[in-house]
Structures are given as structure tokens and as C-alpha cells.
């Protein structure tokens, strides 16, 4: 890959945001009936966890709807997950799904973007749409007295967007500006550089917002075609949360019931990228005085049966502040203010990633010490004390992940998207308790691969390459330019 190609690939948006990223989700980062009972959290993990009541219905056109009542506050929210994301963008049209989401509320067959914005503003409502690798999400929320007019807006925006030419050109220009600025955001730029390095031509290696070249080449017809392919009722799940009446439910089902379904494109699984040996790449940005470090390998699919064991094991390794990686590199050696690791489980094998930062002069030590921690954990695993402590931690933070109806809705949407039963939530506490030390350590030993790993450093190459050559072997550190010359 040339430095020109790398520059094009990496000038893209910041890291993935899912359903308004401040929300904690155990469904996506952590195992149904038509109707579920409600109840309070029980400290007895053997009793399981009873999630609040909700109902689920599938319309004739294939749209699945979850109704989650909440009378604690006078509000209502609509969250729709469309089961197609940027991984489905055609080669050369990277950024297409993001552009579709950006343009949804920028004009319909009835109203302009300004008219839509004015009406949402008068209602005090919020609207957002975004696209990630595996799916796209549309959300709207407001006060319950505005539930029906807000619903009318959501249906109009989702079912009849017009994609006006002027708005299309404006969105393209904004995306290009964001892409151009990304190089000056070291944290996000390093994330994307690592994804490109690890995945190559696999869709997970391509930028969700696109490249300067791909976005410039997009046409309005591409946006319309992508919308028609993916924003279909039989490719979507809707969650309605808050205060709503039977009459509103009837309007929801009648309105969205008129949405025309279509045959969906066949989803073909991509071949896993080949990750062989220890590879080190430095993306050179001469003005950098602090280096961003990313290292990792292929991880797991969300449906992997080892998911929960790996979540527990990784929490010991680097998934919490009190972790092996943070204790060694931050507390013992003072090389960084923070380091973390995680399995980003997706529809296909997401990355296992270790990420940190350090001053340029300590990059080699930070990388080698991180590798040592990984290798030791792979060989010896977590102790019984660490397992017990981490079980308590994971069980303690679990209620916060579904404490509000909207957080529960997020989890339920993601579980359905990835084909995971609701018992993942109801049995979560007892399943955590049931994990044995040997089970966790076996899963981590299988999933951590220090022999086939990619290491990405975003820094001043002259400062860091000599430190990395003893790890990769002389002449084996690949150097690419962050900026097009």
C-alpha cells in the first residue's frame, strides 16, 4: 500500500459512535419471547435478572416493533436499527451509508430541511441518524404530548426522504472537511490507521465516512439506490419507549405498515484477512511529540460462544482501570496515563485491540512491555482472586447498562440484530457466576495471538523506528506517510 493510498484511506471520521455513544451497552460489548415480564434487580444472581416489561410485534411487511412502556417521565422516543451499515458500501463508494444517514432529515417529498428542523425545534424534539460498520440507527425523542407529531415526522423522514441536490452537495463538502481534519486528531487517526493495517481490503478496514476520493465520486443516485436497498421495513427493528397510548400504537402500526418491503440483497460473508507474523507499521507525522500506539489481531464474532468468558478475561487484562496492562505500564513503569484492551465483537470477526499513548522516546519500551503482559496472560491466565474480583465488578456495573428503558431498548435492538436471545440479559448474572477460571483462561489463551499481530504507531518516524526494529527485526518496520506530499 502506498503512502498516497494510506492517506486517502485514513482521512475519515472519528471512531465509531453507536446509538449516541454515551450509552452503556452490554449487548454489543458483552448472551425471546413476544412478551417479557418486569421486575426489580435482585442481588441474588441465582434468581436471574428480570428485565422490565415490553411487547414485541412483527408487521406484515416485516418491520419488528418493540414497545417498552415507561411512565416515570412524560417522554417518548423512537429508535430504529437498520440492519445494514458501512461494511456493505460498494468498493469505491466508501462513506455511502454515512451519507444516507446524514441526509435523511435534510428534506422529504413534502418539506425542506429547514421546515423539518423548525418543526422539530418547536416540539423540543431531538433527531439523529448515523451509520456504523454493521448497522445504521435513527433516533428521535421528545415530550409525550408531542408523541404523535413526532411520530409523523419520523415516518416522513424515514419513509420518504428526497435527498435534495443542494443538501447532497453540502453533506459531501462537510464529509470532505471532516476527512481532511482527521489527521490532526491523533487518537481517531491511529484507530483508523490500525483498522486499515489489520483488515486491508476487508470492509472493516475501510473508513465508515469514506475517503476524500470515494466521497468526491459519490452521486445523488448512489445515495437513492443505497436508501432503497437498505431502508426497508423487513430490514429494520423499531423500539418505542416511554409514555404511549393504544391509539398511538395503532397509528405506528398503520403508518409504518404502509412502508413497502423489498427483496433484500444477499449478505455474503467476507473472508478473514490474513494476519501472519508480527507486523509493525509507523505512520509518520513529523510534528508529533507524543505517539499513539495500537496493537492487536483478529478477535471474535458477536455470536461466539466464548463471548462472555472473553469479556471477563479481558476485564482482568485491560478492560478496566485496575487491570494487568494498566498496572504494568501506568502504575509500575509510568509510560502512559492509560492503556486498555478489548474485543470489539461484530457480525464478522472484529478486532482485539490494545491502545495507548506515550512520549516518543518510550515507544519501544511501551510496545515490548505490552507484548510481555499479553504473552504472560496467554500462558498463565488470570488468578482465582482476579476472576472473583472481576465477577463482582461485572455484576455490579450490569444494572447501569439497562437501568433506563432507552438503554434496555438499545440492548434489545442489538441482541436482535446479532441473533442473540434475550436470555443473555436475564441470565447474565448467573452466567457470569458460572464461569470457571479454567474456562476463562482457555478462552483468552485461544483468542490472544501474539505470534500473528499488527502494531501501528502514529508518530515521528525518525524518533520511533530505531526503537521498534529490535521487535520487528532490522529493516522490517514499515513506514508510511500520514500526509500526501
List keywords for this structure.
single chain, 485 residues, alpha+beta, Cytochrome Bc1 Complex, Chain A, domain 1, 2 domains, seven-stranded mixed sheet, six-stranded mixed sheet, 13 strands, 43% helix, disordered N terminus
Tell me, what's the shape? globular
CATH fold name of the largest domain:
Cytochrome Bc1 Complex, Chain A, domain 1
Largest sheet: spatial strand order:
1-2-3-7-4-6-5
Give the structural class. alpha+beta
Please tell me the overall pLDDT.
Answer: 90
What portion of the residues fall into strands of 2 or more residues? 15-25%
Helix content: 40-55%
Q: Provide the CATH top-level class of the largest domain.
A: Alpha Beta
Per CATH, the superfamily of the largest domain is: Metalloenzyme, LuxS/M16 peptidase-like
| Number of discrete domains | 2
Count of helical stretches: 19
Description:
- The protein has 485 residues and is α+β, with helices and mostly antiparallel strands.
- It folds into 2 domains: 3-257, 2-Layer Sandwich (Cytochrome Bc1 Complex, Chain A, domain 1), CATH 3.30.830.10; 278-481, Metalloenzyme, LuxS/M16 peptidase-like (Cytochrome Bc1 Complex, Chain A, domain 1, 2-Layer Sandwich), CATH 3.30.830.
- It is built from 19 helices and 13 strands.
- It has helices spanning 3-10, 26-29, 96-103, 113-123, 147-159, 165-181, 186-199, 212-217, 220-230, 246-257, 307-317, 324-332, 363-380, 384-401, 405-418, 423-426, 428-434, 437-447, 461-472; strands spanning 35-36, 54-58, 64-69, 75-82, 126-131, 136-143, 236-242, 278-284, 290-298, 339-343, 351-359, 453-459, 477-481.
- A 7-stranded mixed β-sheet has the order 1-2-3-7-4-6-5, with helices on both faces. A 6-stranded mixed β-sheet has the order 10-11-9-12-8-13, sandwiched between helices.
- Helix 3 crosses helix 9 (220-230).
- The longest helix is centred in the C-terminal third of the chain and has 18 residues, at 363-380.
- The model is unreliable at 1-24 and 30-45 (pLDDT under 50).
